[in-house]
Amino acid sequence: MFLRPYSLEYNNHSIYPDWYLTSDYAPLTVNISIFEENIQTKKCTLIKNSEEEDNFIVELIEAVKGLNTSNIQNKEELEDIVQSFVSCMEKNWYKHSKIVNITKHSKAWWDKKCHRDLESFRQTKRIENWKCFKCIVKRMKHNFFDSRIQEIANKNCGP
Q: What is the torsion angle, in degrees rounded to the nearest 10, for the CA atoms of residue 119, residue 125, residue 127 and residue 128?
């Protein structure tokens, strides 16, 4: 058993020499505190290249155009402008985003076509629909990872 030598929390083991039965080793136990952790299971998101994303960007551009930044005299006026931009952005975000469940199956490459083809297969149970679904998944993964590789290569200026 490997423990932290100077940790009171993790170095509280017990040795039980009466429990060893036919072995010549004494069993050891350690108590480990497990703290409750809040794991986020939902989030707001915009689907990339969707109509909602386009509308969000258009409304955000209009909000920026509507900000009066021509006569900023002091820090408080700047903070007021920034705060009005932030509140406008949040309002637009919650207007156009949707709440999704985060699961172990959540995929960045998944889109409406994948969902549509999977639903089509689930309704008909036909092998042709399954093949169509698998083909679109393969294409979407390929496109997604190619773009990620390209993005990383361009950011690092190398392969």
A: -50
Q: Is the pTM of the predicted complex or chain greater than 0.85? A: no
113: left (phi over 0), alpha (psi -120 to 50) or beta: alpha
Question: Which DSSP string do the residues of 57-121 spell out, in sequence order?
Answer: HHHHHHHHHH---TT--SHHHHHHHHHHHHHHHHHHHHHH-EEEE--TT--TT--HHHHHHHHHH
Which phi and psi angles does 119 have, rounded to 5°?
A: -65, -40
Domain extent for 156: 107-159
Contact 29, 14 (CB under 8 A): yes
DSSP state of 20: -
What does the alpha-carbon distance between residue 68 and residue 78 come to, in Å, rounded to a whole number? Answer: 10
Question: What's the pLDDT tens digit per position in 106-147?
Answer: 677 888 888 889 889 999 989 999 999 999 999 999 998 998
| Any domain includes 60 | no
Report the number of distinct structural domains present in the chain: 1
